[in-house]
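so my prof wants the structure for this chain in the C-alpha cells format not the other one, which i didnt know existed until like an hour ago. anyway here's the sequence
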Amino acid sequence: MKVKLNLEQLIGENENKLLKSVLDCKDDSELRQAISRIGMAAISEYLEMILGKQLPTRANEIRERKLFHLIKHYFDGRIPNETEISTLFQLTESSSRTLFKIHFSDMIFLSH
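here's what i got, hopefully its the right format
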C-alpha cells in the first residue's frame, strides 16, 4: 500500500524552513525523504499499538519505542548521537543522554 502525503497542506513556509534546519535538509526533496522516513517510523509505532505489541505505559518507555522506530526507519539503523536525539525529541542533551543509555542498555540486556 502506498501512502501519499502533501506536506504543503500541513505546514507553512516558516515551518518548512524550520524543518529543513532541524532535519539538516538542503532542499524540499531532502525534506520529503526525511519526512517519509519519519512517517514510516510513526506508522510502525501505530501499527504496534493497534496490534497490541510492545505497549509502553510510561512516558520514558514511549520515548524509547519512538527512538527504536526512528533508528530503524529514519536513521536507517545508524545510532544517532545525543544532539540528534535532543533535536528530534526537543530534549536537553542530559535528557537525551539518559534516553540513549536506557534504550541501549535495554537492547544489550535483551540481546543476551
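also thought this was worth mentioning. The chain has one domain: 7-111.
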